[in-house]
Design goal:
Chain lengths: 78, 213
């Protein structure tokens, strides 16, 4: 397996959508390719960081104001 | 007809289906519950697409109002949340078009790029790289980095990886094929990784020289 082959399957590996046989092949490649290991780990970390950090905060006062506006218009039949 | 979803091999209706039925029966308080459940997500998605706070506020309100008006059209063959997200994405794109005075805005814009498709930065990151930044500084780095992605990659990454839609749901929501979603997702992930690398590298050189311990 080349690095290009590994990269083509990177998402499937991250999303756990590879067959057991393919997983073994990918692991074998990882065992001897430090670069692909870095790409895999840092891509996983990239996703995790975006999942776990709120970058567009909705403050509770704004949230309540918007919520009230929506519901008041729905009650009037929009 | 209620949506039937397979959960652990059993067929159970999604909890939103009962709420939608109550709203259809005239119970506005059930809609209050649905709005509360999804308002943060819709606001986030709108802000990611419009990149403007005031637009995101308008989009969020308009999307919930439109969903309420069109609730009869909700078929129940997709999740209520996915249906709602599709409305919010369309409202966001419409808002962008207005802002750009009628210029075409689509999720296919600016995706003809090879940037990031081959990883170039292959140095490892620090073990918990986000610990090296304060919360506000980190949020700014993450915002700036994701805002630099082409629109068509950014939306796919946000729906699939941040908001947790499946590949199929993302494809359905954006009117794209599953292979197109997969291809954009890989490119988005690799571009973000590449751009974040400059902030999250191990401070190897400095540690070796003793400047940082």
């Amino acid at each position: 397996m080349t690095c290009k082959d590994f990269l083509a399957l990177l998402d499937d590996l991250i999303d756990d959508e590879v067959s057991p046989n393919m997983r073994t092949e990918l692991q074998t490649h990882l065992g001897r390719c430090g670069h692909c290991e870095v790409v895999l780990n840092t891509t996983r970390k990239t996703i995790e960081i975006y999942r776990s950090h709120e970058i567009y905060d909705l403050p509770s006062d704004l949230r309540e104001r918007l919520h009230a506006a929506i519901m008041s218009r729905c009650k009037k039949g929009c | 007809m209620p949506t039937i979803q397979s959960i652990a091999g059993q067929l159970e209706p999604h909890p939103d289906v009962a709420l939608v039925e109550r709203v259809r029966g005239g119970d506005v308080s059930a809609y209050d519950t649905l709005v509360r459940k999804y308002e943060r997500q819709l606001f986030r998605i709108a802000q990611h697409i419009t990149q403007n706070r005031e637009d995101a506020e308008d989009v969020m309100q308009d999307a919930f109002l439109k969903a309420y008006e069109k609730l009869e059209q909700f078929q129940g063959n997709s999740k209520f949340y996915t249906w709602l997200v599709r409305i919010a994405v369309n409202e966001s794109l419409m808002r962008l078009r207005k802002r750009r005075t009628g210029k075409m805005v689509s999720i296919d814009e600016d995706i003809e790029t090879d940037e990031g498709s081959v990883p170039r930065d292959l140095a490892d990151w620090a073990p918990d790289p986000e610990q090296n930044y304060g919360q506000a500084e980190l949020a700014e780095i993450l915002r700036k980095t994701i805002q630099g992605l082409p629109q068509g990659f950014r939306i796919v990454f946000v729906l699939r990886d941040v908001e947790g839609l499946s590949t199929e749901e993302t494809a359905e929501t954006l009117g794209l094929s599953v292979p197109a979603v997969k291809s954009r997702l890989l490119r988005a992930r690799l571009q973000l990784r590449e751009r974040l690398s400059r902030y999250f590298h191990k401070k190897k050189g400095l540690m070796e020289t003793g400047i940082v311990k």
